[in-house]
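Quick one: structure tokens for this chain, please?
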Amino acid sequence: IEQAIADLKARHGSALRLGAVGSSLGGFMATRVSEMYGCHAALINPAVRPHELLCDYLGPQTNPYSGERYELLPGHMDELRALAVPVTAPERLWVLQQQEDEVLDYRKALDEYRFARLSLECGGDHAFTGFERYPAQIVRFLGF
């Protein structure tokens, strides 16, 4: 991500406008992008402290979409821990959260992002049911 942004900055200079959108682990990464580059980010059912969440999955894995096999190692948890950043500008973040996320405990995100803009919905799931209601609002929030 950092290399892609550096490449974009090299091509576009000061005309480059950034915003980030991420779901689950992507929400964790979008938080990092927001903090590092000072841009707005929309976080959909974001993972909080993924190094703690994923430690139960150490060992051989198979990507459910590509079929690729890989091994999740303790070193990967160290890498995730190192990527975590404190939220210093919650006004740049919008958390879209559904309470019936079957993968992540929504209360952890409420605590982590307690000063950010929040859209909390009853029901839903990890894929964020009804997400199609939000893209135009997200684009405006990102400042585009």
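The beta strands are 19-23, 40-44, 59-62, 69-72, 93-98, 117-121.
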